[in-house]
Each structure stands twice: as C-alpha cells, then as structure tokens.
Write a structure and sequence with these properties.
The complex is a heterodimer of chains A (about 220) and B (about 180). Chain A is mainly alpha-helical. Chain A has helices spanning about 5-15, 15-20, 35-50, 60-65, 65-70, 85, 115-140, 150-155, 160-170, 180, 185-195, 200-205. Chain B has about 180 residues and is an all-alpha fold. Chain B is globular. Chain B has helices spanning about 1-15, 20-45, 45-65, 75-95, 100-115, 120-130, 135-145, 150-160, 160-180. Classes of the chains: A mainly alpha (about 220), B mainly alpha (about 180).
C-alpha cells in the first residue's frame, strides 16, 4: 500500500493546491456506536434469512423494540363523523327487473349448457339436408329443358320423317292442329307452291294422283 | 504481509462450520469502516450507505465459501461494494426516471442539506467537487485519494488497466482543483 506522502506527492504534481494540503477526510457524521453494533445486527439478519425464522408477531415485536410505541399503537389520532360507519352503506345494486338483460354466451364450459355430441351431429345433418335440398331445387329450376317441337323437327331428316309417317299411318286431320288447319289454300297458292315441282316428281310421290295435262303449273 | 496471512487464516476459519460465524464477524469488523466510508463517499446519505453496506456483507457471506485467494480479500470486498453502490445509484435513477447527472446533482443537494455543511470549509468543497465528476473518475479519485489504493489493485477492483486509471485520476484531480479554486 502506498503511503499518504506518496499519494500527496503525486497529487501535488497534478493539482498543486489540493496536493499541498493534508488528506481531507470526509466531514460526514454517523450515528454513535454504529460500527460497534454493525457486525451484530448483520449477523442477526444473516441468520434470520438463512434459517427462515418466522417473523415475530407485530405487537410483540413492537413491544420488544419500544414499550412506549406498543402502548401508542392502538390510539388513533384521526376522527370520523359521528355515526359514519352506521350510516355507511354499500352501493345497493338495482332491483332484479331493472337490471339490463344479460345474454348468456355459450362457452361450452358450463356443464348444464353442454350439448351432447349426438344432438350436435343431428343438428348439423338436418342443416346439411336442407341446404342440399334447396340447392337441388334451384339447380333443377335453372336447368329445366323446355323442349321446342319445331326445334326438334329440324334435327329429323326427311327420310326419318317419311318413315315415321308411313309406319304409323299418321293422317293429318283438320281441327287437330288448329294452327295449320286455319290456313286456307287457294288454287293460286297451290300453283305457286308446286311451281318448281315437275309432274314426274308429283307422280312419283303419289302415283294415283289424277294429273291434269301438263304440269301443275 | 501480516494482513494477508490474517485474511488467509480468517478464510480457513470461515470454511470450518464450527468457526464460520466467528470468522465472518471478524472479517466484518476488520473491513467495515473502510468499506463504509467508501460507500458513504459515493452515496453521501448514511441510511442509504447502511442499506448498501448490509447488502454487501450479505453478498460476501453467500459467496465467500467460493472465494479463491487469487486476489486479496480487501480488493474483492471493494469490488463488491463498488458494484453495489453503482447498482444502487442506477436503481435510484430508474425509480425517479431521472438521468444519472440528476442523481449526481441530487447527491450535491444531499451534501448541502447536511446539518454540518459549511460552504467555506475546504473539506465540504472537496465533497461537492467530487460529486461534479463523472462516475468512473469519482470512484477512481476516491479509491486513490482516500483509500490510497495502488493502481494495480484498483485495476482489479474496477477491471480497468492501470494506465487508464492513472489518466482518470489525473483528470479528476485537475477538475477538483479547478472547482475548489473557483467556488
């Protein structure tokens, strides 16, 4: 350990004024007998923490430290208005009817609110069936094919139509098909319609048809 | 050398459960004043210093069994005490949400609030001057000026090179001299 003289010599070179005075001890005071008791107090604390000794009762502890304080402990210096505690009431909640309606939130935690697995499956099955039925209905309505007879005829070949008429011996009868029955043909119409048809062709179509001389024109 | 031997003996007694308490009480008595004043100069207030002192020795009690005698016991004690002081100041700063410089000015106010404070007395001026220093310089100055600690030992306490500590002490002493002469 260096001596005070060496420290002051070093200091004098750096700070001549400070080094020129003796070491200035701190002027702080401390409680009388502090160092005499310190080790004992410290050891007490260490053993208390090490042994986990239960802390003494508050009243007993105060009485041991200061009997005067123990006597003063129960004297309350503060006062409250007379009858304060009798008049004091807790805030009364509103009557049952006026209470806002509470909506229970099913968290599934309450046993009485618990839904059995079977009921849950059944509920989902019914819902799924309804959704499926609704879907099928909508699909059917949207995709219903309204058959146009005239449109169908365009796809039938003349030969097929001829075969059908021959096989089923279908005769057109006025009155059955009012749209066509209402059409009245005049001789001029017949002539116009068959103007491009030769007699040979007409004869081929119906050999028994009595033809006038020349073409139908 | 006699002091070192004595520490070795005390440590051996501490390791024996039968003499552990007695040895520790001896260690406390041997170092309490030096450590107290080191702590007090850093914290100014006696109650704060007493709390920190107790914490330091409780730490020592818990760690002394594992202390390897590579360093001197007093160096190790100073190191623990210094760290506890810095931790205490840091906690004060956090509690009050203030900067360290405000903590330092708070320490100056504590000095001025001392019932024996006399602004004309050199020793009080010195205390105020010390509190103006940055934290590291303050510790270095106090260990050198009051505790007369060699730089080699101080470097073990503060984990800083002896050269850097010498420079710190130089700056600190200059600032203190300026403060005393100008206030």
């Amino acid at each position: 350990m260096e001596t005070s003289k060496e420290i002051l010599t070093e200091l004098k070179e750096i700070a001549p004024f400070l080094g020129g005075t003796a070491i200035l001890r701190p002027p702080y005071g401390l409680p009388a007998g502090y160092f005499e008791d310190f080790a004992e107090i410290l050891m007490y604390r260490i053993h208390l923490e090490d042994a986990h000794i239960p802390m003494p009762d508050a009243v007993q502890e105060t009485a041991e430290i200061s009997p005067l304080l123990a006597k003063l402990q129960k004297i309350n210096t503060y006062k409250v208005p007379e009858g304060y505690f009798k008049a004091w009431k807790a805030e009364i909640p509103p009557p049952e009817n006026n209470r806002p309606k509470l909506v229970a939130i099913n968290t599934g935690a309450s046993p009485d609110k618990r839904v059995s697995p079977l009921s849950r499956i059944l509920k989902y099955a019914v819902a799924a069936s309804l959704v499926g039925l609704l879907g099928i209905t909508i699909y059917t309505i949207n995709n219903r094919n309204i058959t146009d007879p005239l449109h169908g005829l365009t796809t039938v070949s003349d030969q097929d139509m001829a075969n059908y008429l021959d096989a089923d011996d279908v005769h057109w009868t006025p009155g059955i098909a009012p749209e066509t029955a209402s059409v009245e043909f005049t001789d001029n119409d017949i002539h116009t319609l068959f103007s491009n048809v030769s007699d040979a062709e007409l004869e081929q179509y119906h050999p028994d048809l009595p033809l006038k001389n020349g073409t139908a024109n | 050398m006699a002091e070192q031997t004595s520490d070795t003996e005390l440590l051996a007694l501490f390791r024996d459960p039968a003499t552990k308490d007695k040895a520790f009480t001896e260690i406390v008595k041997k170092y309490q004043e030096r450590l107290y004043w080191h702590i007090r100069r850093m914290l100014v207030n006696h109650d704060d210093s007493n709390d920190v002192m107790q914490n330091v020795f409780i730490r020592v009690w818990n760690a002394l069994a594992g202390f390897r005698e590579d360093a001197q016991l007093y160096t190790w004690l100073y190191r623990i005490a210094t760290n506890e002081c810095l931790t205490f100041l840091e906690q004060q700063k956090k509690k009050a949400s203030i900067s360290l410089s405000e903590v330092e000015s708070g320490l100056s106010n504590k000095i001025r609030a001392d019932k024996d404070f006399d602004a004309n007395k050199l020793e009080w001026k010195l205390q105020l001057a010390i509190q103006q220093l940055p934290e590291k310089q303050r510790v270095v100055f106090m260990l050198r000026y009051y505790d007369e600690m060699p730089y080699e030992e101080m470097s073990k306490v503060l984990e800083t090179s002896a050269g850097a500590l010498k420079a710190s002490y130089h700056h600190a002493a200059k600032k203190i001299e300026d403060f005393i002469l100008n206030h």
